[in-house]
Amino acid sequence: MVMNLLFPHYTRWVSVIILSLWMITLTGQESYFGTSIVLDTMDKTYRASKNEFIFKYQNFRKSHIEKMKSTYKDKAGKEMISEYQASADELIRQVRDNQYIFHPKIDTLVRTTLAKFKGPDIPNPEKILFLISKDLSLNAFCLSDGVLMINVGLFLWLYNNDQFASVLAHELGHFTLNHYNDYRYDYLLNEHSKNTKYELNQIKKQLQIKLRLPKIAYAKSYTTKPEHNENTNSKQILLVMRIILLLVFVPKNT
Prior knowledge:
The chain is mostly helical. The protein has helices spanning 2-6, 19-27, 44-71, 75-96, 104-114, 161-176, 179-223, 230-249, and strands at residues 100-101, 130-133, 140-142, 148-151. A four-stranded mixed beta sheet has the order 1-2-4-3, covered by helices on one side.
């Protein structure tokens, strides 16, 4: 964040982050890592770790999409898969743009903590992917595909590894129980259900109108008044008057 303000044109290439300095300044406690961590995005180790994550994530994404396709086969499921593909593309773009931290010390800390998790429903710790965000806010979360997102600000409030382990376990629990995917699928399913009901109601109205049209035309054929013809009426009146005159003024035979 500081680098963005001071060197906006060079942030993409070189970003130096000293975590322990932030921790001492903001919290007054000793650094969780014990020593400063300097991050150089031009360093070979950083670039190698970044490229390794992208390679693993691309393969991971393919397998996750196949799993979603076998689970969610309707219209709502297809929309959810499309959303996931877009978000995965955006994540890769952010990683390439150096928006995440890759450092051997942090990687060792996370891997060591994950290795302690054991259980039949817990993903293999060695296959779990994670990212460390440069965000200083106190937060961590798990993406729908199981990728752990850990804000670097989380370390500002940690005192020991047990606290860190509890946070990771909580977030992995969301993924294990499929909370996000279930919630999103139910939401989209409900939206599609509303749309379907609306479409059915529109079709029903159109059918009702079509069924009423013949009845209305039949009723009009019996209720429509005959057209008024002035010439016909005047001729009839004249004929009646002539008959009357003949009856009145024609002399009778004597």
